[in-house]
Amino acid sequence: MDEYTVNELYKVKTSPNAHKIFKILDDRKSDYRHSFKKYTKSVQDYIVKNRQPDHERKTRIDVWKLLRKTIEPFFGDGSYLAMGGSTLTNLATKGADLDLCFAIRCEDGSYTEEGVNNFVLSKIHRILEQKPFITGLRHICARVPIVTVELAFPYMDVKVDINFSLMIIHFLQCGVYPPILPNLFKMFPKHFDGTGNVEDLDYAMELDLPKIPKNERTIGELIYGFFDYYTRFNYDEWGISIKDGKIFDRNILPDTEREYMFFIEEAYDGMTVPKNLKRQSNLMEIVGEFKQARLSILKDICENYPPPIDETEDYRDEFEEENNKILKRNNEINNLADNW
Description:
Elements: H1 3-10, H2 23-26, H3 33-50, H4 54-71, E1 79-84, H5 85-89, E2 98-104, H6 117-128, E3 134-140, E4 146-151, E5 159-161, H7 167-175, H8 184-187, H9 189-192, H10 219-232, E6 238-241, E7 246-249, E8 264-265, H11 280-301, H12 318-339
Parallel strand pairs: 2-5, 6-8
Antiparallel strand pairs: 1-2, 3-4, 4-5, 6-7
Helix pairs in contact: 10-11
């Protein structure tokens, strides 16, 4: 089955970087076969050891139900406090936050966050601050406003964030080949196009997914690949569309959206998720962390003797790139002068 057919079946488009990021590992698998297995086992052991216990997950679900009962009556029909993240997928580790997203249905049947986030969260803050089971409450008025909640006994170990994230989904759809995750938005619009009632979405439904070649990458390889992918990602020219399962040319964005350093589209409102990322220096700091993580993982996989990484395609600050060119040109001039 060729790449075009696979992508058509999963409704995604493989990123140009997907076939490059694992080359350094593939070239050395035979040399480090034992350490590859050892690293993957260490990740699996960590997951097993730190998996969220059933009683902890039940407590978080109880908190979700309690907050639903407390908040939703103040907003009427069409409002819904949705549970998301690792608690919903049952992939949480011990002590993980409970991620919630409050949805309000518009008159046209859609859901939107535009222009209502701070108003709604301020109201939620006022509702919760009077409740005896709340011990800590914080409304953060950032570009992506959130409310964090701390609760009294018996829920004191649960911290609540009302927020979401999409980078891993994109990587597993477009950053690897064959893709690991399908584009459910395109494949099953009846369930996932955002026009239905959030409360009616059945998270346990069985979906008839097409058969494609299985991705045989280990957990260790995928972790390395994630950090390598976002180290090389061309943030200046590329945007990420979760709805379409692909990257796209940022030049098609309106001027109001180009101010953001990283555009990763929220599937239902079309706006970028990291709205607070507007400074190049902040983006470079994040990319630097990705780069460091990539090297650290490679050291673990290759028994502290990592092969040199080709950094020529790593993302760079355009000003840093220009300065490097100037420095190189000056060095060449100085060398010519010395030889003369």
